[in-house]
Amino acid sequence: MKDKLFTVNNLTKKFKNGVVALDDVSVEINQGVTVIIGPSGSGKSTILRMLNAMETPSSGEVFYKDTTNIFEKGFKLNLYRQKVGMVFQNFHLFPHLTVLKNLNLAQMNVLKRSEAEATEISINYLTKVGLIDKKDVYPNQLSGGQKQRIAIARSLCMNPDVILFDEPTSALDPEMILEVLNVMQDLANQGMNMIIVTHEMNFARRVADDLIVMDKGKIIERNTPEEIFNNAKNPRTKEFLERVI
Ligand code: ADP
Ligand code: MG
What we know:
Elements: E1 4-14, E2 20-30, E3 33-37, H1 44-51, E4 59-64, H2 77-83, E5 84-87, H3 99-109, H4 115-128, H5 144-156, E6 162-166, H6 174-189, E7 193-197, H7 201-207, E8 210-215, E9 218-223, H8 225-231, H9 235-244
Parallel strand pairs: 3-7, 3-8, 5-6, 6-7
Antiparallel strand pairs: 1-2, 1-4, 8-9
The protein binds adenosine-5'-diphosphate (ADP) and magnesium ion (MG).
């Protein structure tokens, strides 16, 4: 048995406009790679944002390892978000900072590393994602695929326990998708814990230890990718897979 990362208990999110994005979701997420799939609007981003406490629930709890409920008053979110990193569809790089400064910023502000320490770590991860030659350029001089590899490197600089990815390749031109998926595959091979929302089904199949299928604010199926792709139990899972594969 792998160790538990997250325990989600009865999580519900009803937005002010009345939309129920999460409907009483309970799930345990283990170490390793978990991939979340499902139709648009099914609540994938909402649950991911909830795990990082970027969204607060209408009701329910999230426990990380042996912490208290992350939504409890007084819970140290700054420290927590260092352990639970996030990579977004649209990169979220600072346009007015060079690549190196983008990577150094949170290391210096949150982890209190000196500029020299931060730079050494940034250079290490820039080398790992194959972009050391870009360290002094600004984000607008990079391709989408390069921006996303920089965003991943920036997350790695914080020594996270787990990285959450919300459709990391959805904003990319097709020829750039693979370079980002390859970086993520390398991380998986090195044992990084990851929770990934994606529509890249071949990648999901290859990389996931656990696959979660969402529909209409609920988890409708959860199993190994083998089982879900070959032997889905829920008719709505089958219908979804038929549409996307
Ligand atoms: P997915 O990532 O699976 O496409 P989301 O989690 O983004 O789905 O959204 C789930 C549902 O919640 C959708 O109906 C969406 O329109 C709605 N929703 C998401 N964010 C908000 C918000 N800030 N305010 C109102 N409704 C929202
Ligand atoms: Mg989404």
